[in-house]
Amino acid sequence: MAAQVYSKKDKKFPVLPNLADYEKLHAEFNWSEASKELDWFEDGKLNAAYNAIDRHAKGDRKDKLALIWEGAKGEKKQYTFLDLFKLSNKFANLIKNKGAQKGDRIFIFLPRIPYLYTAFLAILKNGSVAGLLFSAFQEQALLDRLSDSGAKILFTNSELAKRVEGIRSKLPELKEILIVDTPEFENELAAQPDSFETVKTDPSDFAFMLYTSGTTGKPKGVVHHHYAIVAQHATAKYVLDIHDTDIYWCTADPGWVTGIAYTILGSWSCGVTSFIDEGRFDPSRWFQKLQDYKINIWYTAPTAIRMIMAEGEDLPKKYDLSHLRHILSVGEPLNPEAIHWSIKTMGMPFHDTWWQTETGCISIANYPTMDIKIGSMGKPFLGMEAAIVDDAGKPVANDTEGNIALRPGWPSMMKTIWQRQEKYDSYFINNWYLSGDRGYRDSDGYFWFIGRSDDVIKTSGERVGPFEVESALVEHPAVVEAGVIGKPDQARGEVIKAFVVLEKEYLDKVKTTEEAQKLKDELSQYVKKHLAGHAYPREVEFIDKLPKTRSGKIMRRILKAKEMGQPVGDTSTLEEY
Ligand code: PRX
Question: What is the phi/psi pair of residue 236, to 5°?
Fold first, then answer.
């Protein structure tokens, strides 16, 4: 079936888009030219935080608002680039005095408060490596990340610090926990000078790391270097279409890569004023913010969009959205209905963008001036080569399903997987980086998403590894073993479903439906409490036996096929089931 196209031909943009002619720029673009938009120190040194904030604070944008913040209780604060420069310098002095050195891992476990952002900037200015922890994480998720990275200092608040107390003794390398909402911290911070000599890092020095999930094993630490800002800056300019006069809102939390690349690094590097909302998602409240803060560019995610759509077409119409110019989405497939809906209710289409924690920047995108083939992720970013390849890394013909791959070498490609070189190496084949996603390219060069090639789950846009959830479940005394899958869900993309084999004595206890439901709820809550609030199974099913290969690997694809009522496919490697 031919794709529906949203033509941009006669569309007027209130401000000229940065990119007028994709095909031309794509042919001409090169990274060495693009990197000149950044401020480099002598001898080819580059610091990403310097480029995000310091250079503006030292130049014409010093009194320009960098951050407009609204707290969860409606508190309001504003910071200019100069304010953020000074405050992050104080943070940098503070951690330096605590012994933080170049290359040390310093983690942040905070809600979206201004100190999260200044701590992040300070860590980079000091040449240390910033690690981010999503505020929904519980003990097990925190322990996995803090111990694997050997984190030395942790920024958190009094509320979240409680989750670290029980694991502290298992973290011998964690020397200091800084609780930012205490008078002691405020006093210590106030005593720091507001100037700091930003470390002149090499472009290839590590800047930040994020743990992310695959099919097997615990989450892995994806490490990015300072040079990544070259790609984050360029994508913020050409895909997000950031202009100096814009007010921009990216709804992502910096516990995930989007909140780092496009709230802190690429977007501030372009000198934009960012709105940051600490509060939770709520459709009407979000529209109120779009109106009140006169947002021009809005970068959000499909689950939020679907939940907004569920409120009905009248919702956007109640608000003055006349400032809105460009709206985008990332993280999961953007359904065509969402685009039709936004055209109808807001007069403009959502622009889908595709990328990953590992790619560090938007890699395939619908550009402001490019026609949208509704349902497609768009075309590769300027200077990037994307292809569909087979399992041997050989490009396949147009319109043929295969692995979505990128040619290595763009500036924000992950630098390494923390202390797991073999894992890093496993991403590459035949000089292609394999994303783990399946898709196809059509004859016009547009890329279309099909699904994951592995068992990684995307629930409400957040990436969850089944192994982590299975590991959390088997910690519960009732569970012998568990197999976890992502089950398609209209609102959340996928929900987590766990198939659980019970211990004999528990089996005897769940004779009635009510008893069974009680235990199912208990297991869900157990994962929520021990692993993470967003990673708990919404559905639990008791099962006698899990399908496994003869070597003992859980066959999640069989669980999924059965759940979906689909044929189970090749079962020749399966142990008797
Ligand atoms: O499966 C793809 C999906 O999200 C994965 C990456 O997740 P994460 O590392 O958490 O980064 C998300 C934000 C950058 C991808 O492998 N994904 C991301 N964008 C899209 C998508 N799936 C379909 N369409 C997209 N636009």
Answer: -60, -35
* 5-441 and 457-564: identical CATH topology: no
**Domain extents for the chain?**
5-441, 457-564
Question: Which of 554 and 428 is assigned the larger pLDDT?
Answer: 428
pLDDT digits (tens, 9 = 90+) for 568-577: 776 666 665 4
Fold topology of 5-441 = Rossmann fold (3.40.50)
Helix (H, G, I), strand (E, B) or coil at 70: strand
Alpha-carbon distances, residue 432 vs 215, 238, 388, 427 (angstroms)? 20, 24, 10, 8
Is the per-residue pLDDT at 121 higher than 60? yes
Paired tokens of 64: 């320009």
* Distant-in-sequence, close-in-space partners of 8: CB < 8 Å, separation ≥ 6: 368, 369, 370, 371, 372
- Rounded Cα distance, 406 and 258, in Å: 19
Nearest in space to 519 (alpha carbons), one of 536, 545, 542:
542
Q: Which CATH superfamily is domain 457-564 in?
A: ANL, C-terminal domain (3.30.300.30)
154-199 pLDDT, tens digit each:
999 999 999 999 999 999 999 999 999 999 999 999 999 999 999 9
What is the distance in A from the centroid of ligand 1 to the CA of 436? 10
Give the residue, out of 305, 351, 367, 463, with the most ligand 1 atoms within 8 A of its beta carbon, to mutate for a pocket test: 463
